[in-house]
Amino acid sequence: MTTDGIEAVFLTTHNWGKAAKFFQALGFRLDFETDHNSGQLRAAEGPYVFVAEVPEDRPAEAQLVLKVADADAFRPGPAVEVVTEFEDTHFGTREMTVRDPDGRLWSIQAPGKN
Fold it and tell me: Would you give the distance in Å from CA 37 to the centre of its chain?
């Protein structure tokens, strides 16, 4: 089984309110907001954007998340370095981390176990 494309973009920001307004001005709708300065936005049927506020001493970063339909059926090829195998997340999905040849980390997300 291969990946099914981009599931999400995870962003960190130093100001959740300004970031949310920025994406809304670009046509994204707010799916939900948490009580800890983060939330999820979406435009049309494309990948969602999850934005989380971090302290000023941490860099604002971006990460693409690839999706797979079934974590148990997914087998990356030999050219893929697996950093962490699929693990359950606190938000109800399963996530694996892999490293590309240039050292970048990629998240692969699958639905959680029911």
Answer: 16
User: HSE on the CB side for 92, CA within 13 Å?
Assistant: 1
Helix (H) or strand (E) holding 94: strand 93-99
Beta-bridge partners for 48: 8, 42
**6-111 belongs to CATH 3.10.180.10:** yes
How far apart, in Å, are the Cα atoms of 102 and each of 4, 62, 76, 79? 22, 16, 17, 12
pLDDT value for 44: 86
Contacts of 33 (CB under 8 A, 6+ apart): 20, 39
**What number is the average pLDDT over the span 42-58?**
93
How far is it, in rounded angstroms, from Cα 27 to Cα 67?
Answer: 23
Asked if 3 contacts 108 with a C-beta cutoff of 8 angstroms, the reply is yes
What is the value of pTM for the model shown? 0.83
